[in-house]
Amino acid sequence: MDGTVLVADDDRTIRTVLTQALTRAGCKVHATSSLVTLMRWVEEGKGDLVISDVIMPDGNGLETLPKIAEERPGLPVIVISAQNTIMTAIQAAEADAYDYLPKPFDLPDLMKRASKALEMKRRAPVSRPMNELPSSSTDDLPLVGRTPVMQALYRLVARVMNTDLAVLITGESGTGKSLIARAIHDFSDRRTLPFIVAGAEELSTTDGPATILAKARGGSVLFDEVADLDMETQGRIVRMLDALSDSAPRVMATCQGDLMQKMEAGSFRQDLYYRLGGVNLNVPSLRERVDDIPLLTEHFLARAERDGAGTRRMSQAAMDLVRAYSWPGNVRQLENTVRRLVITSPEEEIGRAEVEMVLGNQPEIEPLVGGGDGEKLSASVAKHLRRYFDLHGGVLPPPGLYQRILKEVEIPLIEIALDATGGNQAKCADLLGINRNTLRKKITDLDIRVTRRRKLM
Q1: Quick one: 371 exposed, middle or buried, by C-beta within 10 A (0-12, 13-18, 19+)?
Q2: Which residues on neighbouring strands pair with residue 99, listed in sequence order?
Q3: Cβ pair 215, 138 in contact under 8 A
Q4: 365: Cα separation from own chain's centroid
Q5: HSE (CB half, 13 Å, CA atoms) of 297?
């Protein structure tokens, strides 16, 4: 790797780690905790690559991107941020960042991206002033997540945002499919035009599609839960899509079920499926992004405080229980549960007892494997892996996939086995068929808290 890298981050440890790694790779490095200093270096012509945090003591790193582009067209900027929301990912794309990585980032992955950025002659960017982006109304979107599956979804949303391709958004109820559609519209070039949601009622009459098009006026149309529409209504949509002109609205659709399966069963039109499936975005369930549950919980607690409900926080035992629950209603169910806890909890700290009481009235937990239809574990795992690859939009996932997948499987396997054996490591090792010392090493390496798991019993 060859070149000069400008690093801007208010965290001294991150500056040190990046400086050491980039220097060992053969680069010269200038590191600072100030955006003012970063811009001075850029204006002086220093640097072949910028790596910048978003929230800095003297400003917002994203807001400097148009200034960097104006001063030094073609200078690539990699944005790193602990603000793990879809808004950050889209703003980075809108400001024409070369790449975006959430914190905590994988250092080898960042180094690989930095190497590509230094080697690649980047096109002169077309920047858009940040004050033209949608306002803070999007701050309340619960599209928050630092897990790889959510970050991949954010990046794919940013890539398709200003295309004319139809978008099919799939996922379980309560995952935020409509919010994804709304975000695509609100951050796109069509954001000043109408956003129309069309369901069965709006499409029930012969002139329904024409009325929808007239209201949309080149904006965006979202067909809500298309799998629930009857064949006649599906036919109206097909005819509507076939008659679209050059000034047609952007077409999006949401769906809970498996459209391919419904199509094969004859309950969904094949021609409509292929017209809606220009890009397929799958919104993962909370079971597929367990590490985001504490982040979402804190987000909803902060929102409740802003709404005047008072300050509330979760005890560790309460958070452990929230994290361990399966959330069949996904983000929507989690949000409603947190709202109820904020109202019913008598103390500032929400305890485990309050969470148990609220979750005791929730719908029965759905099985995690096979959905109760006898599906083999290998088939369920294959579906998740295929979805993970699909979410990268034709780009290969970061290197090291084998070890990451093994870790994802090992952690719940060992935790559940420890639960089942009451935390007895000798029994657990025997159950798993591994040496006791191997189990101890894995518990340490994977940061599995044995006491916590026993408390959950």
Answers
A1: exposed
A2: 78
A3: no
A4: 24
A5: 27
CA 374 remoteness from chain centre: 30
* CA-only gyration radius of the chain, Å: 24
Q: Lowest-confidence range among 57-66, 130-139, 172-181, 373-382?
A: 130-139
CA-based nearest residue to 49, from 107, 118, 144, 125: 118
372 pLDDT more than 50: no
- H helices present in 72-176, as ranges: 86-94, 107-119, 148-160
SS3 category, 32: strand
Reference 221, options 231, 236, 230; nearest CA is 236
Q: At what angle do helices 86-94 and 148-160 cross, to 10 degrees?
A: 40
Size of the chain, expressed as the number of residues it contains: 457
Inter-residue contact 234 to 267 (CB < 8 Å): no
Residue type, 23: T
* Prior bond of 284 cis (ω within 30°): no
pLDDT in tens, 189-221: 898 999 999 888 888 788 888 888 888 888 999
Calculate the CA dihedral of residues 254, 258, 260, 265 and round it to 10 degrees. Answer: -120
Chain centroid offset of residue 327 CA: 17
* Torsion sign, CA atoms 370, 374, 376, 377: positive
**What's the burial of 257, exposed, middle or buried (CB within 10 Å: 0-12/13-18/19+)?**
middle
DSSP assignment of 315-350: -HHHHHHHHHS--TTHHHHHHHHHHHHHHH-SSSEE
Q: pLDDT band for position 139 (50/70/90)?
A: very low
Residue 7 parent element (H or E): strand 4-8
Closest CA relative to residue 347, chosen from 310, 316, 321:
310
Residue with the two structure tokens 């904020």: 342
Contact 100, 88 (CB under 8 A): yes
Rounded Cα–Cα distance for residues 325 and 318 (Å): 11
Per-residue pLDDT, 52: 92
DSSP 281: E
d(CA 66, CA 156): 22
Helices (H), 315-449: 316-324, 330-344, 352-359, 377-390, 401-420, 425-432, 436-445
Helix (H, G, I), strand (E, B) or coil at 169: strand
Residue type at position 193: L
**φ, ψ for residue 175, nearest 5 deg:** -85, -20
